[in-house]
Structures are given as structure tokens and as C-alpha cells.
Amino acid sequence: MLRLAGGSINHGGGEGYVEFGSIGEPSSAGRTLGTFAGVFSPVTLSMFSALLFLRIGYLVGNAGLLTILVQFIIAYGILVFTVTSICAMCTNGAVEGGGAYFMISRTLGPEFGGSIGTLFFLANIVSSGLYIVGCVEGLVENFGPSGLLVGEGNSLLPDSPGWRFFYCTLLNILNLLVCLVGATLFAKTSVVIFAVVLICTSSSVISFFVQSPMNVTIPDENHFLHNMTGNGTMEPVYRMYTGLSMDTLVSNLYANYTRDYTNGVMVSFSSVFGVLFSGVTGIMAGANMSGELKDPGRSIPRGTLSAVGFTMLTYFVLSVLTAASCSRELLQNQYIFLMPINIWRPFITIGIITATASASLSNLIGSSRVLQALAKDNIFGKSCQSKVSSEAIGRILKIVSDLTWSSNPLAAVLVAWGLVQVILLIGSLNVIAQINSVLFLLSYVAMNLACLGLDLASAPNFRPSFKYFSWHTALIGVIGCVVMMFVINPIYALCSFILCILLILLLHVFSPAKSAEWGSISQALIFHQVRKYLLMLDSRKDHVKFWRPQMLLMVSNPRSSAQLIYFVNQMKKSGLYVLGHVKAGQDFSEMSSDPTQDEYTHWLSLVDHLEVKAFVELTVARTVREGLHHLVRISGMGAMKPNTIVFGFYDSETPPDFLYASRSLYASPHYRQEGGGDSLFPLRAEGAEGKAVSPLEYVHMMNDVLRMRRNLCVCRHFNTWTHHAFWTNTSLKYIDVWPINFFNPSVEDPFTTTCLFLMQLACVINMKPRFKHFQLRVLLCDDMKHSQLRLEHLLTTLRIDAFVQLVPEWNDRVRAQWSVNVSDDYLASVNTMIRDVSGMTACTFVSLPELPPQPDSFISYLNKLTLLTDELPPAVLVYGINAVTSTAL
């Protein structure tokens, strides 16, 4: 029930439900960041990163200006469509810590959210490593051998793969120290860092206009242009900076791919785009800080969109100026060309260090927040079948989520830092860039997919205040991201999808968070589709060829009916299955609330416990008979209505408790009776005194079912049946069918509707995997060969795999005792005959005799059914109303 308490909205959700909305002022505890410091600055710095100063020449020199502008448009198009999805998501509800993971998991559910969140966490880890490698590359290019700042022979930093890894480690440790202090410090310094990067970028733009043409030195590591001299030194090689020139611009318009001098690999359109896109993947840097933002719903859209527009304009300006002023040979062979042409060279060094270091720090902070959110949700708490391993993982996750200082996740930061250190072992910036791009694109796919699903599901509560989102933008974002993943690197893309699917399956099976009441988009989509198809399902178009049993099982108490519930589940053959229960003897007009509402969740839990595919329908009525009318008429929906009603047999036996008995396969501590009526599904006392229905009313109910034109099944002795014994008892071989009305054996035609329905149900149960090892046996009460041949022909025509067995005892002894009044002696003889041939029978299907026309005979009719079925194997008495078999194609 929705109620207002202390200014907050309480939905009365169960354990695990999280409601973040409030009517008063939102809590600002631990939230100190605004739009500029918390979103715009981190996003801008992440999108500038290594690309701004280290790879503009690589992009323009290989792809050409026109191609690179197209690639920027494609990349930013994907980003803009994804940003609209992010904006829609974060303006549709309160956003907590965890950023993209929080938004995706609360929309798509824990399985998708956990898997995508894990990959997004890894993407941030890879991205942090990427920017550290870029920062070290800039440092070595400036202060290493032949450094542009220190000059030839004045090396301040030794250069080798080992030394570079050492420098990366030092920077990673510096990031760790900042993270341990907290994100607030980074946010405060990010504004200063942004100002520094902006000054350095402005100096580059100004330099294009004021610098005269010059020769630029090619770095010594470029072995494609350098030749070794006789004394082991490198001869200086230069390439031309022309200044702004139309001829230079024209020469740089089109693509001319060559080898990357850092690794010797041939450059291509896809590799260029991979590097380009890796530099602009920081659009979620602001969303990652959602836990520290004062108003994430307002700050994330404004800050992210502003940063996207600003960085795109900057990249466009730098690309055009680069193409118009630098020869192609310079761009392809000197990636850090911006330094020698700058009006003050240290500007570029400062820009490289600040842009890359801040971007790596931003991603390290973001990854730690995502990891903390994953740990809080205990997503992987049961990812191992081993109980010991699961408990160990659970304890580790608890440490990761709980070990904090001033809202700073210390343990999560340490784990993220360690993984970044592993990424640094790769070394090559361009290789890391492709992995980074693919992982980020996959997280963007998930974000767009989440919003697309919400929009297509037409959920009334999906009404984001961000108005520029539609399902078209989300769909374009999904398609664009998937296509570009495979353009960048098909192998990485395929591996990431496979890993994502494996994580989804792992979380679906083992995650303890899958029962969390976050709400899953899958339920909304299923509802949307089911409603559509139910409207398309027309009962007027039903055809007997496609008939299937649609069962309504009337359950008095599930404790004593667990065996029967399971058996009917096997008999439904992919049809509708409804468990119906009537709370009788109560006048609803005198009740303060509906008692079925409290019981309904217990019934759903029972369905899960018994592992049956059934719906539950509960009703309140003065009598069980009245409740039966409710259930038969209103159960199901549209054309999916029960066509067969199943009763348990009426007797005075003490009801067993299959949910409590220690030897029962259905026993569970959850259903242990603690005594009294407060326990779940309390059993009646011994005898018939506690029954909610009398024998006369019971037969009236049978008659009502037939009057409502429904097939009827009455089941007896299933309290003696255990499906485990069914599979292991080798003495049981047959499922028996008796296509004869024992109350009126003069009608011996096996082609009656009841007999055909009888054989159809037996055939259906025999088709189930757990009943296939039984032989279907049709018992023919005749000794004439032509009757056997006729019945065998019928079975062949109906494609029923069964054999016919004659019962000569019928004609020899039993039939002679029959009279119109159906004496007890005759029924005892019939019962003996059935038992004599049922020694190896697992289940018996018997034709249910027609009910007497007068209610005065109902009690006698029930007594005769009792005599007929005493001490038989589990038996199903069947009466058919409608045709259920077809011989046509």
C-alpha cells in the first residue's frame, strides 16, 4: 500500500526493495559535487586524455582529414545517442552510486546489470591503464633519450620496456594515493587540471597561426626513417611543418595508411577508429561519480552533453589546423609533433601529463565505485557451487563494500589499482586502445538497450524529464555501437560478447541478487508481448488438431495434494495449468481485507518449491461449490481457459503431509507445522468432520463441471504414489487404460468422446520423459478377435503407441453380474478384475461413468465410485465432453 511517512514514499515492498524517491528535500549526505566540478570537468578530461596531444597526428596522417572528420562524426554520433539514453535513465529516477552499473542493473535486472557492470568495471580499468601508458609515452618523448625538451644526449629518463613499466607503476601509485584520500579531492583538483589542459590546448591552436614553417625532428624510436651510422649513432631526420597552407590541406584530405612506427603494424581504417574512439570514451565519467553528485538527475545530462559538444568542437578545430599546416610525412612519423611547433614547448608536456594523468585517475575512481556497487549488491556471492567458495567470495565482497573511509571505498580502490597494474604489462598504447574501445562500446550497447527496452515496454513509470530521447535514438545507438565494435576488432568484440553471455548465465543461475526487488525490464517486455499475443489468440479459431489439455486442479490443501499437483503438471503437455483454491465459509462483505492477498505469495512460493509450471487462482466464497464456479469461469485469460477440471477423490482418509514428512521428496523446513492454524496451509483433523464440502456437494460440483462443458478428471490414490518410486521400481511396467463405462457396459464402443479423451490423456502422460519407459496398455473387456483388431486400428489411426490386451475374465465371470442397478457385488468383482491385472501398473485411466440425472442418487453414485476404485494403483477417472483427437493432417 502506498503511504506517506515522514515525507517519504513507502511502497511496502518486501526485503530487498529499494525506494530512493522522497517528497522533501533530497538527502545530501556525502554529496558535495556540482555539475561543473563533478561532471563537466571529469568528462572533458577523460575525453581529451591521450588523444588530444599524442594521437591527432596519427589520426590525420593516416586517415586523412575527410576520413577522420567522418570518424569523429560517427564516434560522436554514437556517443550522443548513448548520452541521450544516459540522460533519459538518470532523469527517470534517483541515481545512486555505481553510475552505469546502477542504472543498467536497476533496469535490465541483476543478470544483465551484473555482467555489463563487470565489463564496464574492466573497461574503466583498461582505460586507466591506457591513459597511464599515454602519460609515460609523453614523458619519455620529452625527457628520455633524444627528448624534445632536454635535447640530444641530455636524457633525464632512461628508456626501455622495463623502465616504462616502472614509470607507469609510479604514476599508478600516485593515482592510488589520490584515490585513497577521496574523490572530493580529485573533483576539486579536476577544475584546476581542466583549466591547465584548456590553456595548453589554446596554446596549440594559437601556435598554428603564429609559428613560421620549420623542420621537425623525427624521434629515434622511428626505425623506418632513421639509419644507423658507422659509429652506432642515429642520423637526425626531419620532416616539414609548413604553417597554414592550402596546398598542405589538400595533400592531407585523403587517406594514406602506413605502418605504425611504434609497433610496426600496418594501420587501417579500423585501427585508426579504435584509437580515436578510445580517446572519447569518457562520457560516463560523470555518471560514475553519481554517488558524490548533489543532483545527479540534473548534473549528469547537462554536464555530459556540454562536455561532448566542447570536446567535439576542440577535436574538429585541431584536426583541420593540423591537416592545413603539417606535411603527411611529419604526421605519420612524429606523433608528438605539437610540441616542437608550440610557442612554448613545455605547454604540451604539461598538457600531456595533466590530461592523461587526470583521465587515468578519473577511470580508477570510476572503476572503484562500480566495484563497490557490485559488492554491495552481492552479485557474485554464490557464483561457486562449493559452499565454502561461495562463503569466501561473500566475505570478500562484504569487505570490498564495507571497508570505507569518509564514504571512500578503500578496498575497492585497492582492487582496482591492482588490476590496472596488470593492464600496464601490455605496454602498447594502441593495443590497449582497441580493447578499451570494445569494452566501452559494449557498455554503451547495454545502456541503449536498457532504454530501448523501457520505451518499447511502454511502462507508465518510464517518463524521463529529458525530452530528447526516443526509441529511435536508442536503437541507432545499439546498432552503431555493435557495428563499430566489430569494425575496431572482430576478435575482441566476439570475445567480449561471449564473456558477457557467460557472465549472464553465471549470474542467472547462482547470483543471490537475482531475487532483489529492483524490477527487471524483462518482466515489462514479457507483459507487453504476452498481452499482444493473447489478444491475437482467438478461441473461435480453435481446432481439434491443435488441442492441448488446459488443466484447472482444485486443491483443498497443498500439503496433502503435492503428489497430485506434480502428476497433473506432467499431464498438461505444455498447456495451461492452474491451481485453484477456495476459501470457503466466509462472507467477503464482512471482511476488512481480502484474505487471499496474504496467501497468494505463499502459493507462488509453493509452485517454485514443487517445480511445477502453474498459475495460481484463489477466491473467497460462501461454499466451495460457489467458488468452483468462480474459478472455472474466470481462470485463465482470453482463449487460454481451462478445458479440463481435475478433482481429488472424496474420502475420509487422514490427509498426509507431503511438505512435512521426512521421507517425502517435497518436504521443506519452510513448511514445517509449528502447530495451530497459524502455520502455512494447516491440515484438517482426521475423518470427514473438518471437510469444507459434503459428499452431496462434491457430486454436485462434478455435475456442475459437466454442465459448464468442461472435461472432468477425478484422481484417487495419488497419496500412495511417489514419482521417485515410479522411476526406480522395475516391477512397474504399464500405464493402463480401461475404455469402458463399468456402470453401463452395454455401451462398448471405444470411439466415444470419453474413451478417446481417456486414451489421449494416457498418451500425453506416456510422452513425458519420466513416463516414457512405461508401456501404454489398453485393456479390452472382450474376447472377440475382431474387437481387438478394430481397437488396434483405432490406435494406429490416432498415432497412439499402445498395445491391446484382452480381459477374458470380463465375459467369463464379471459381466454376468451386471444389472441396471449396478450392485455392490458387481462393482467388487470389477474392482477385483482390475486389481488382478494391475500388479505391474504404475497408473490407471478409467472411464468415469455418467452421473445420474437426479440429485437423490448422487450419494449412491459416489459410493459406487469408491467401491470401483478401492485399493487400485493411482487412478484417474475421466469424462470427456469435447473432441480431442484428429486423424487429419
TrEMBL record:
InterPro entries from the xrefs? AA-permease/SLC12A_dom, SLC12_C, SLC12A_fam
Gene Ontology annotations for the cellular component aspect, listed alphabetically: membrane
- Where is it localised? Membrane
Q: Where is the Amino acid permease/ SLC12A domain?
A: 44-552
Q: Does the keyword Lipid metabolism apply?
A: no
Domain (SLC12A transporter C-terminal) spans: 563-649
Q: Would the keyword Disulfide bond be found if you checked this record's keyword annotation?
A: no
One Pfam family it belongs to: AA_permease
Coiled-coil positions are: none
Please give, as recorded in its UniProt entry, the membrane topology of this protein. Answer: Multi-pass membrane protein
The alphabetical list of record keywords is:
Membrane, Transmembrane, Transmembrane helix, Transport
Q: Biological process (GO) annotations?
A: cell volume homeostasis; chloride ion homeostasis; potassium ion homeostasis
Provide the GO MF annotations for this entry: potassium:chloride symporter activity
Transmembrane region positions?
33-56, 68-91, 112-133, 164-186, 191-210, 265-285, 305-324, 344-366, 410-432, 438-456, 468-485, 491-510
Family per record: Belongs to the SLC12A transporter family.
- Report what the protein is called: Solute carrier family 12 member 9
